[in-house]
Amino acid sequence: SYGGIEHKELNKRVKVSSCVSLGGSCIDRINSILKNADQFIVSFMYRFNSPTLIRTLADKRLDPIPVPVVVFLDYNQTYESSSEGSHYPHYVRRLIESVPTSLVKLKGRSFHQKIIISKETGKE
User: What is the DSSP letter of 119?
Assistant: First the structure.
């Protein structure tokens, strides 16, 4: 996995991190970032099939001081690419029931981005 970089030319306090795979270590890193977010969370996902991340997003909305959360999810992946017998529709249903989720359709094409933007007090 990639540790991220600071974009000093843009803003000395902005940190961009990435993971090559959404395997266990990336899920753990993302989950830690989400748990620390206390200002907002915005997610753009091709597929969202991590029960851990779905649970964390739902918990953030139930915090004593709720954190605004919104998820943008690929429509094609959700309704047109899920095979019968797949557990993916179950994950999507749990996500939609837990946090505000918008299904995005880009002229019949899928988007493959997996981006989460979050804000923690005192950090950018």
Answer: E
> How far is Cα 42 from Cα 8, in angstroms, rounded to an integer?
23
Q: Helix axis angle, 51-62 relative to 24-36, nearest 10°?
A: 0
Residue 13 and residue 26: Cα distance in Å, rounded?
22
Sign of CA dihedral 75, 116, 11, 5: negative
Cβ count near 93 (within 10 Å): 11
> Which amino acid is present at 69?
V
Q: Which of 74, 79, 76 is nearest to 114 (CA)?
A: 74
User: How does pLDDT run across 55-99, given as a tens digit for each residue?
Assistant: 999 999 888 889 999 999 888 777 665 555 677 778 888 888 989
The 3-class secondary structure across the chain, one letter per residue, is CEEEEECCCCCCCCEEEECCCCCHHHHHHHHHHHHHCCCEEEEEECCCCCHHHHHHHHHHHHCCCCCCEEEEEEHHHHHHCCCCCCCHHHHHHHHHHHCCEEEECECCECCCCEEEEEECCCCC
The per-residue pLDDT of the chain, averaged, comes to 78
